[in-house]
Design a protein that fits this description.
Largest sheet: 8 strands, antiparallel, barrel
Helix content: under 10%
Low-confidence stretches: 1-8, 18-46
Shape: elongated
Oligomer: single chain
Length: 204
């Protein structure tokens, strides 16, 4: 019977659970605004009260490229996953690629598929990713779901909350619970801070 140590499979699942679509069409940088050229200076047929069309604020776009986690904290843990080196405090990070206004993809370091995220103003939420890890020699499959949401403080700093829901499938799950001294399902929540390459360490 071979059952890996809990920290190994739990961190691996956080990466394996990136079930997005990494190779979708990625259009070139989208158009900045739709209103810039038609505000003719002379000969307006407006109401005579001055050009009344207030310009729309620019659409927020975080920096593209590689981001690095610079800080992290364990918020909750019902998986009894006692560890000191958080995934967000060991130089881990992700590549961020915009997919148009209001959409981007995060490819976590070590993952092969990206996570698609929706952006509303400076807040974001990513599609859940799922992963499975069969345990050799026993009828156990560890199943995980990864969720990431948060907000951008500015274009080069992101505050996020990472959730990992872990469950077990198979006839030997009671053995896995005994081995890990834990109960399924369980959840780990991590608060993480990331900065873009070239961004400051602790943006004010």
């Amino acid at each position: 019977m071979t059952i890996p140590l809990a920290p190994s499979w739990l961190l691996a699942l956080a990466l394996a659970a990136c079930g997005g679509s990494g190779d979708e069409d990625r259009p070139d940088h989208p158009k900045k605004g739709e209103h810039g050229d038609d505000t003719g200076a002379a000969g307006d047929t407006g109401d005579g009260g001055g050009d009344g069309g207030a310009e729309e604020p620019p659409v927020f776009r975080p920096d593209e490229g590689h981001w690095t986690y610079i800080d992290g904290a364990l918020l909750s843990d019902t998986c009894e996953f006692d560890y000191e080196d958080l995934p967000a405090s060991d130089g881990d990070g992700f590549d961020l690629t915009m997919r148009g206004d209001g959409a981007f993809t995060m490819l976590l370091d070590g993952a092969t598929e990206g996570i698609d995220c929706a952006l509303t103003d400076q807040a974001f939420a990513c599609e859940p990713g799922t992963g499975e890890e069969p345990i050799p020699d026993v009828d156990v499959v560890i199943v995980s779901t990864l969720t990431i949401e948060g907000s951008f403080v500015d274009a080069s700093r992101q505050d996020s909350q990472i959730g990992i829901d872990v469950d077990c499938r198979g006839s030997d799950c009671d053995l896995a619970e005994w081995y890990y001294d834990m109960s399924f399902p369980c959840r780990v929540e991590i608060q993480a801070v990331a900065v873009a390459a070239g961004g400051g360490d602790t943006g004010a």
